[in-house]
Design a protein that fits this description.
Elements lengths: L1 E7 L4 H10 L6 E7 L6 E5 L2 E5 L2 E10 L1 H15 L7 E7 L17
Antiparallel strand pairs: 1-5, 1-6, 2-5, 3-4
Helix pairs in contact: 1-2
Length: 112
């Protein structure tokens, strides 16, 4: 099993969720996060005062999938979240040793 963490632009969330649902992925965790990479931040003016916005709003999607679904899920996220502009995000793929469903005690892929 693998854990996919994808950090994307917030306005792409609905499209990515729908695309993942279409390929059969039904469970995910979504968090509102802030950060920056090469995009850095930017400055804004509010009531005549200029201030720096160092951390930009992003959305982090987390999925735990069987190994055979990972490549298709990653391709789907890339196709759906890509705008071609800086700040489209990143995808991280991590190994998962064990999953346990609290309610039933099921383990491994049965718990996902």
């Amino acid at each position: 099993m693998k854990k996919i963490e994808a950090v994307i632009k917030p306005f792409k969330l609905d499209d990515v969720r729908e695309a993942l649902t279409e390929i059969g992925i039904t469970g995910m965790t979504v968090s509102e996060v802030k950060g920056f990479g090469r995009q850095k931040g930017h400055t804004e003016v509010y009531r005549g005062a200029e201030y720096a916005v160092d951390f930009l709003p992003k959305v982090k999607i987390e999925l735990v999938l069987a190994d055979d679904l990972v490549e298709r899920a990653v391709e789907t996220i890339i196709e759906t979240a890509r705008s071609g502009k800086i700040g489209d995000g990143k995808i991280f793929i991590l190994p998962v040793e064990e999953v346990i469903r609290i309610r039933t005690g099921e383990t491994a892929e049965a718990a996902v």
